Amino acid sequence: MKVDNYRFQLRDKEYVPIIIGGMGVNISTTELALSAEKLGGIGHISDAEVCYVCDQILSTSYTTKKRKKYSYNAGNRDKSDLYFDLEDVAEAQKKYVEHTVSQKSGNGAIFMNCMEKLTMRDSASTLKARLAAAMDAGIDGLTLAAGLNIRTLDLIKDHPRFKDVNIGIIISSLRALTIFLKRAIKLDRLPDYIIVEGPLAGGHLGFAPDDWQNYDLQSIVAEVIAYLKKEELQIPVIAAGGIFTGTDAATFIASGAAGVQVATRFTIARESGLPDKVKQEYLNAEQQDIVVNTVSPTGYPMRMLRNSPTLRYTAKPNCEGLGYLLDNSGKCGYINAYYEALEAKVDNKPMTIKGQTCLCSGMANYDCWTCGDTTYRLKETTVKQPEGTWYLPSAEEIFLDYQFSTDGKIAKPCPPGVG
Ligand SMILES: Cc1cc2nc3c(=O)[nH]c(=O)nc-3n(C[C@H](O)[C@H](O)[C@H](O)COP(=O)(O)O)c2cc1C
């Protein structure tokens, strides 16, 4: 039983049923997404902090421009003035997507992971600008994530590509799916695919922090498939979260999923955006180093390595330049936590901020080491080099291992000059 025995049919196209999930901020890089596309699968880029990402890879200066515009506010606890320039958001998104899709070379596709919880001081307008610009720039698919996305389809219903772009939704429960579908049916725009993300995934989780252990991906996928069958809705279901080997993936597909979305194995790929030093942290992690906590100001639990530098952040909120998590009244949990800690600070004692982190800076600086539950197994997937560091496989090696491996085996990469 192997993944290569199957193909994922989406509208009139067939793909290798392996999707590399979106990993913000720029962990699922253009290069990582393109490696899946080249091999006939689907790769995601993410639009998390897109202005900042565009500045990093395309030498634009949206972040500096915004920081300069609002520099007068830097010492102010009230961040309600800090709106994003919607034209800049759209332009950055367009440049980033064009940069990626213009390099397509295979038969696969490039999708974009778009998170509703990235509220950017004006959630509806900024999400609309990002989705519309991605479609304008030729994205093959939009994966709606991090939120119920009840009103998201309404935001783009007048876009010329509304019916032709692939639209998918990530859900972690049947209840979340039915809420989304209610509106989708009203708009006569069913999703083209549904990603069921279970409790072992990386990034934010769609479960309560204290009960994710009570759920398992197999049961949720089966429940969703049975529901769609009962409702006579033919929408492919993709399983995500904790699928570590090609055999794990093939097992899901054999039992009714149309494909799998995977991410953790690719965090250590050479094409992943994490700095090499951080990739070694992932590879060295043990099971007890992986925690689910509630420090994200989004309000969702998040899985990360417990030695993530972001957990020790005491930096002043950087919303004048970033500010991607400001809600519609200009608030973010970290701002409160920071100013409360500042007020409570005793002279000469270091400040500690409990319970919240500045996720914008943490993710932008690769200091928030979010990861899937199976991260501690990454060492099974590669080899240690004579000087003591782990060899980093290419995304192609990992993708082909998922596609062709059998019997739970993992093909380790062969470093140059070995074997
Ligand atoms: C480092 C990392 C960052 C992630 N970031 C995001 C994200 O920005 N948005 C999102 O919807 N999912 C995110 N995810 C979830 C993945 O896209 C994917 O669905 C999930 O992790 C698959 O499970 P696996 O990592 O066990 O293979 C992230 C996962 C990882 C490992």
From TrEMBL:
Any GO molecular function: oxidoreductase activity, acting on the CH-CH group of donors
Keywords: Flavoprotein, FMN, Monooxygenase, Oxidoreductase
Signal peptide range: none
SUPFAM superfamilies, alphabetized: Inosine monophosphate dehydrogenase (IMPDH) (SSF51412)
GO biological process, one term: 'de novo' pyrimidine nucleobase biosynthetic process
Record bears the keyword Flavoprotein: yes
CDD domains (UniProt xref): NPD_like
Protein name per its UniProtKB record: Nitronate monooxygenase
UniProt organism field: Prosthecochloris vibrioformis
Taxonomic classification: Bacteria, Pseudomonadati, Chlorobiota, Chlorobiia, Chlorobiales
